[in-house]
Amino acid sequence: MNRTDALFPSLLENTKINQVVWFVMLAVMGSLVIAISSKIKVPMWPVDMSLQTLAIFTIAAVFGLKLGLATILLYLAEGALGFPVFQGTPERGIGLAYMVGPTGGYLVGFVVMTAITGWAADQGWWRNPFKIGAAMLAGEVILLALGAFWLMYLFGVSQGIEYGIGPFIVPDMLKLALAAGIVSILGNTVRKRLG
User: Fold this and answer.
1) pLDDT tens-digit map of 66-86
2) In this model, does residue 1 exceed pLDDT 50?
3) What CA–CA distance (Å, rounded) separates 49 from 172?
4) Which residues pair with 42 in a beta bridge?
5) What angle do CA 39, 84, 102 make, to 5 degrees?
6) Domain range 3-194, CATH class
7) What b-and-e string marks burial along 6-36, b requiring 16 or more CB atoms within 10 Å of the CB?
């Protein structure tokens, strides 16, 4: 027994505190994965693609509703505080100014798609790639709608549709299918560890 164990034995034995610490660590790690995935760019026209939606779908399906939402909200809070966690930061600004820019609708959409996917995972849908894929698809539709509506508000209807939906359909469907496959294969092991 080391010195810390001798001084705080009840604290170390308290499983609720251990669980909270574990969940906080997972949320922080998840937010870092989302931030890193946003920086991995695949050059495409008219906008670069990132692995961000793949990461968010996978995290939401593995973490479930509560931890998934905590993770995505932590990620957004990091961005609001000025950390360069978003795809276009720091090149296109940081903090709240960036968040109300062209990608603002997608950032809100990330929360909704995390909630839908996390809820579905909590219902056990993660075991079937088609079921969790359907939940992810619903989240994707809302993500694209919110992103496009925000772009329409900023730049007009035609640009909102052209730049807000079209370029994302095929790449996001591929990322969605990949996330559903990953979760159905690895989900059992990871979700058991989450308790």
Assistant:
1) 999 999 999 999 999 999 999
2) no
3) 9
4) 49
5) 80
6) mainly alpha
7) eeeeeeeeeeeeeeeeebeebbeebbebbbe
pLDDT at 12 over 50: no
Q: DSSP secondary-structure letter at 82?
A: T
pTM, to two decimals: 0.86
Alpha-carbon distance of 134 to 125, in angstroms, equals: 9
SS3 83: coil
Q: How many CB atoms lie within 10 A of CB 145?
A: 15
* DSSP notation for 15-81: HHHHHHHHHHHHHHHHHHHHHHHHH-EE--SSS-EESHHHHHHHHHHHHHHHHHHHHHHHHHHHHHT
The pLDDT value given to residue 30 = 97
Whether 23 and 64 have beta carbons less than 8 Å apart is answered as: no
Over 50: is that where the pLDDT of 4 sits?
Answer: no
Query: What is the spatial distance between Cα 105 and Cα 163, in angstroms, rounded to a whole number?
Result: 13
Give, in degrees to the nearest 5, the angle at Cα 111 between 110 and 115: 115
What one-letter code names the amino acid at 111? V
